[in-house]
Amino acid sequence: FSRLRSGLSKSSNRLADGVTAIFTKRRLDDETLEELHDLLVTADLGVPAATRITEALAKDKFDKEISDVEVREALASEVAMSLTPLEQSLTIDREKKPHILLMVGVNGAGKTTTIGKLARKFADEGLSVMLAAGDTFRAAAIEQLLVWGERTGAPVVTKEIGADAAGLAYDAVKRAQESGTDVLMIDTAGRLQNKRELMDELAKIVRVIKKLDATAPHNVVLTLDATVGQNALSQAEAFQEIAGVTGLVMTKLDGTARGGVLVALADKFSLPIHFIGVGEGVEDLQEFRADAFARALSG
Ligand code: GDP
After folding, report:
1. What are 109-144's pLDDT values in tens digits?
2. Is 99 helix (H, G, I), strand (E, B) or coil?
3. Where are the coiled-coil regions (predicted)?
4. ipTM of the assembly?
5. What is the enclosing helix (H) or strand (E) of 121?
6. Is residue 259 a contact partner of residue 9, using CB atoms and an 8 Å limit?
7. Residue 290, number of CB atoms within 10 A of its CB
8. 252 a known binding residue?
9. Are 115 and 103 in contact (CB under 8 A)?
10. Is 172 helix (H, G, I), strand (E, B) or coil?
11. Per-state percent for the chain, helix, strand, coil, to nearest 5
């Protein structure tokens, strides 16, 4: 929690200082409510959440004196309420062998790092893990995945640069099936600027996976970078359309002033939030906890 709290301190300072500035020796009236609404929207929480929070406050406290502490508490409780239903851990079905996770997201979002962190976590839980370097166009992506494989003891299935990603996915699933591997994580390309091409590529990957296991992929996990703020919303929308996302990992919540976007994402997409990334190290992945997040965000 302290890691998340210090990570989110930029978000929470901005919110807490803003709340204090608005509510020092002032009543809860139309003017202060409007200022609070603006503050929440600027902090990326989105208009629906900002409206819910200000309406909840107005209902109980309109025309009364209110302290900044009370406002922050109301904020934390509203954020926790909207995020709690989305607090869903990623459960691996040990019967699947392999349980297949298709990992999607734009380049730079922290997808490969998240795969590495998850590989360590699953290995620590006694699961055997295999990785597939499905971003076949980026040499750096393949190399980085190999490094994570070495670090975590997970075999990495690779092909030459420019190889067909679906062919690679097929080989990886076959290998994982034959070796009785518990979890297979398939990295994918993140070229959202070529949406059509990426859509075709991901659709083809899913098609070939299904040839070997009709129930797969068992999760399509979208990695989003918190520091991009509102852009996370358009990325989520695009990958929903392209790949049918089943859950989220939000990275880089350490040291960003934009943690509030998770609330806007929740409102818009209602996607389960599995994990948050709070650093670059292998241990810097936490199960998402709505209460802790809400408290860290509201200061
Ligand atoms: P990919 O292109 O989506 O695979 O992104 P990478 O996994 O290569 O990550 C891009 C950069 O973000 C790297 O420098 C990572 O170390 C960094 N990164 C990933 N997750 C986190 C996180 O939770 N916090 C911080 N501070 N950096 C992260």
Report:
1. 999 999 999 999 999 999 999 999 999 999 999 999
2. strand
3. none
4. 0.99
5. helix 111-124
6. no
7. 19
8. yes
9. yes
10. helix
11. 55, 15, 30
Q: Up-side HSE of residue 298: CA atoms within 13 Å toward CB?
A: 22
Please report the atom of ligand 1 found closest to the CA of residue 113. Answer: 7
- Position 28: which residue type? L
Model's pTM, two decimal places? 0.95
Report the residue among 102, 107, 113 best suited for mutation to probe ligand 1: largest number of ligand atoms under 8 A from its CB.
Answer: 113
DSSP state at residue 137? T
Identify the helix (H) or strand (E) that includes residue 84. Answer: none
Quick check: bond before 98 cis, omega within 30? yes
Cβ distance 222 to 239 under 8 Å? yes
- The annotation status of 13 as a binding-site residue, yes or no, is no
Angle formed by the axes of helices 68-83 and 47-61, to 10°? Answer: 130
**Residue whose tokens read 């070939």:** 208
Q: What is the pLDDT along the chain (299 residues), one digit of tens a residue?
A: 777 887 788 788 889 899 999 998 788 999 999 999 999 999 999 999 999 999 999 998 999 999 999 999 999 999 999 999 999 999 999 999 999 999 999 999 999 999 999 999 999 999 999 999 999 999 999 999 999 999 999 999 999 999 999 999 999 999 999 999 999 999 999 998 889 999 999 999 999 999 999 999 999 999 999 999 899 999 999 999 999 999 999 999 987 778 899 999 999 999 999 999 999 999 999 999 999 999 999 98
Please work out whether the CB of residue 227 comes within 6 Å of at least one atom of ligand 1: no
Distance 108 CA to ligand 1 centre (A): 6
